[in-house]
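Q: For a teaching session next week I want to show students how multiple molecules come together into a single three-dimensional assembly. I've collected the sequence lines for a complex. Could you give me the predicted structure tokens for the whole thing so I can convert them for display?
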Amino acid sequence: MNDPMTAPVGPAQDTSKAPEAAGWEPVNVREFERHAQLMLSKNAFDYYASGANDMVTLRENRAAFNRLRLRPRILRDVSMVDTSTSVLGQKISSPICIAPTAMQRMAHDSGECATAGAAAKAGALMTLSSWSTTSLEDVAKAGGPGGARWFQLYVYKDRKITEQLVKRALAAGYTALAVTVDTPVLGRREADMRNRFKLPEHLTMGNFVSAGGAHASGTKDGGNDSGLAAYVASLIDRTLDWNDIKWLRTICGSMKIVVKGVMTAEDAAESVRQGVDGIWVSNHGARQLDTTPATIEVLPEVVAAVSGRCEIYLDGGICRGTDVFKALALGAKAVFIGRPVLWGLAHSGEEGVSKVLKLLHDELVMALQLTGCTRVSSASRSMVTHQTSYYSKL
Ligand SMILES: Cc1cc2nc3c(=O)[nH]c(=O)nc-3n(C[C@H](O)[C@H](O)[C@H](O)COP(=O)(O)O)c2cc1C
Ligand SMILES: CC(C)CC(=O)C(=O)O
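A: Of course. Below is the structure for the complete assembly, covering every listed component.
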């Protein structure tokens, strides 16, 4: 049988076919995305860029940030700005962290190692996907001993594989498990179905080479011809529930547990009851359930439900320093970026990721200065309002 995860799809990058990209220095994240579109194969770019179904939530993740208005304060000395903060007790240089995205070597041959290198140089926190195209040990080496690293966990039907992954992450120095709870089945990504998405032949799922799962193909699932949907259906456990979180707690040693994919006050309150260390507000970059609200829209209800009892993070649609500012002001301790890192990788590997991190960092510094803040904790609820609040006062 033609293995859907390994059949050839052509090179991920072909600069000779993208003369428009040569010498182009993108000045914002959206331009990095357009640059990546020129550089990458359709198979890879569509996989990275697309959301589920009609991509209503994909647009909302951006649009909702743009509906929020900033209320700047003036005449405050902003000559010195400190963006450093901490997550789960670990100091980081900036609240802009890296979300797990699978299969980064499709964007650049150096893939996850390049991301780890750029994160370590910037003093940023990186979360590695279970489904990386490099082993978690090699990524830890590339990030060096000082790098802040979390491991994203997909819980396998085969609990031995899950347990081995957790133990390996602990041994390699990852300090938290981000347990993804929004993917009992893969969302319907129609571009991947049309393209019959496949991992290029020369790449493997780096964490499973010795377990024999690096090329697993799975069965056809509900007519969805994306090789990935079949792969997920064959391996990921749909029975996952709170008992599994308890079980993970018994095997994760000193690693903290963060639930990734919380979108309601009810689940936030339950997460706190279950004793998780952190709540990651995420709709999986709008790739799972379409027509959910934007993450920035649900952040206030999550913050209210948690009432300071654990840290809250947010991802989804962040591509400006002002977006980061808004999330912090509404109660997130840190934010995570997914696609922007892939666009940086596609641009120029580690250097490209460094550029994206610096770009967003500089934009955040400016957002802080222009709102009259000298540190991230000064971004406050009163500095953000919904655009309609101005009209309602007329
Ligand atoms: C190409 C791609 C692959 C992803 N792979 C994973 C993954 O392996 N595990 C996971 O928990 N989330 C995964 N995500 C979701 C991200 O961790 C994150 O929630 C999302 O990308 C944030 O939205 P943004 O891309 O708009 O920044 C992936 C997202 C993308 C775009
Ligand atoms: C391999 C996939 C399940 C990775 C993922 O989370 C995604 O593509 O959104």
